[in-house]
Amino acid sequence: MGGGGSTRRVTFEADENENITVVKGVRLSDSVIDRMKEPSSPTGRQHRAPGAVNDEELKKRIAEELALERARRDSEAQKRRLFGKLLERERISSNEHLTRAMLRERAATEEERQKAQRFAKQLEEKDRELKKHDAYYKEQLARLEERSAQFYKVTTEQYQKAADEVSARFK
């Protein structure tokens, strides 16, 4: 992050009020400019007269500020990438969860459909069985009615015959 050297050229100059003006390349904030104006600690550097700006020191400060700014931007970009990855993982996890839920729902729906088909087949089978029993019992009823009619006819004939015999005997 910011370890590679930049090939960008920055040209700047100080105006008569010692304000730093960026001529080409980088735009500097007021706070950066103020820090560049501050005198550095005396560590063997040459000091110029008040109001004069040491070009080497200024260039060094600008380079440091640019490196810090670049590092901050890189850090923010990395945070955005990490956050983006986190969001992507969350989206993928959510999609997987949704997909699993949909598959479970489809399986349950399919199971219900198959169960309904089984019940429909069982109902049709029961209906066929009931119709079969109905036909059998109607046939049995018809036979019983026919036998009953025959029995009634025979009984009636026997009664009539017996009544005729009794009547002929006791006349």
Automatic annotation (TrEMBL):
Its main location: mitochondrion. This is MIC19 protein. It is a lipid-anchor. Residues 31-55 are annotated as: Disordered. It holds the Pfam family MIC19_MIC25. Coiled coil: none annotated. Keywords: Disulfide bond, Lipoprotein, Membrane, Mitochondrion, Mitochondrion inner membrane, Myristate. The keyword Manganese does not apply. It is found in: Mitochondrion inner membrane. GO terms for biological process: inner mitochondrial membrane organization. It comes from the Eukaryota. GO terms for cellular component: MICOS complex.
